[in-house]
Design goal:
The protein is of the alpha/beta class. Helix content is about 30%, strand content about 20%. Strand 9 and strand 10 form a beta hairpin. It starts with 8 loop residues before the first strand and ends in an 8-residue tail after the last strand.
Length: about 350
């Protein structure tokens, strides 16, 4: 892999026609592929840029390192192409004992992968980690240095971007916190293995901020920063998900097409733009549509959001009623519920926690 900005990647936990359309629009140079999509590796490779790098992730974090390495190698060996192995996802680095346990696991994982000639992507740190003030964070990074030195690439998750996209590196949970890491840290090893533009309370990711152009502008700023830092870069958009939890980050084909500029050039000057769309709307009507997406949500979706929940899937009409599955907080924990109402009678929405509560 080049030591220059490498482009945009994708995260595929499953492979569906929608996944394929988005991959073909983005043409990513690399992707994290969860084991739920391993049987579709040839199709994924065909949808991506030529000679892509596939980072294989076994979506189980409590197995011995040797087992994970062997399973990844066995599946990579079924296909031709370039592969790397993804280690633990957002590991616990909160305390010194936890870091020491992680070092033991990761070094074992790296050794087992390298014996099989598979590069590794390790650490995969969550936004804001290691925790603490600058002195505590630097001390933690010193402990984690053996992983840095041994692994081929270091994963990095970038969330809270809407709040922290600034030049100030003093905030504890800035997405650019890697700039506070020790001088010895090789930023050319860094890959962003997850990215998200967080929402503002309604949990719809970039949609809460208006339009796809918000995400485009964000990626332009990120790419500029990564180039300044000689970072490998890359950003993973959830294309095929294990469940509905990440639907708020699910990209659109229009967004993928616009972001594909990063995969065909070394970034452009200024901001990227979405492909032009013909419309008969006035500027005011278009502005209202882009800046108030919540108003266009279906009635039951808005009710779930109003309850502080997360809609899952789409509304279903059966007989006289409309239904939608959602996760809403109850007693401090998210609970699966069905929100329903007689179709058209949106003022009388009800919540069912079990099948017996649904109307016949």
């Amino acid at each position: 892999m080049s030591r220059a900005f490498y482009g945009i990647g994708a995260w595929c936990d499953s492979y569906t026609p929608e996944t394929s359309r988005l991959l073909r629009a983005l043409k990513p140079k690399f992707a994290v592929v969860g084991d739920g999509a391993w049987n579709h590796i040839p199709e994924i490779q065909a949808d991506m840029a030529p000679d892509p790098l596939l980072i294989l992730r076994l979506v189980v974090d409590d197995l011995p390192a040797r087992t994970v390495a062997r399973v990844i190698h066995a599946n990579a060996s079924r296909y031709t192409g370039r592969f790397a192995a993804y280690s633990r996802n957002e590991p616990d680095v909160n305390t010194s004992p936890a870091r020491l346990r992680l070092i033991e696991w990761e070094l074992d994982f790296i050794n087992e992968c390298h014996k099989r000639d598979i590069p590794t992507v390790c650490l995969n740190l969550a936004t804001g980690n290691p925790p603490g003030d600058k002195a505590e964070m630097l001390a933690a990074m010193e402990e984690l240095r053996p992983i840095h030195d041994a692994s081929d690439y270091i994963g990095l998750h970038l969330y809270d971007l809407a709040y922290n996209l600034t030049d100030s590196m003093d905030e504890l949970y800035t997405a650019f916190r890697y700039r506070l890491w020790p001088a010895w840290f090789d930023r050319s090893k860094l890959l962003s293995t997850e990215i998200g533009l967080d929402g503002v309370g309604k949990r719809f990711g970039w949609r809460d901020w208006g339009s796809e152009q918000v995400m485009i502008n964000l990626m332009d700023s990120l790419a500029d920063s990564w180039r300044q830092d000689s970072m490998l870069g890359g950003a993973f958009f959830h294309l095929g998900t294990m469940n509905g939890e990440w639907d708020s980050y699910l990209a659109t084909e229009k967004l993928m097409t616009a972001l594909s500029v990063y995969n065909v050039s070394n970034h452009n000057d200024g901001y990227s733009s979405l492909p032009e769309v013909e419309t008969n709307m006035t500027n005011e009507e278009l502005w209202q549509q882009l800046t108030k997406p919540y108003e266009s949500f279906p009635a039951l979706t808005k009710r779930i959001v109003a309850l502080g929940g997360l809609p899952i899937g789409t509304e279903v009409v059966l007989g006289d009623y409309t239904y939608q599955l959602g996760l809403i907080p109850m007693s401090g924990s998210p609970v699966d519920v069905v929100i329903y109402a007689r179709t058209g009678d949106w003022a009388n929405v009800k919540v069912a926690r079990r099948a017996s509560e649904l109307p016949l």
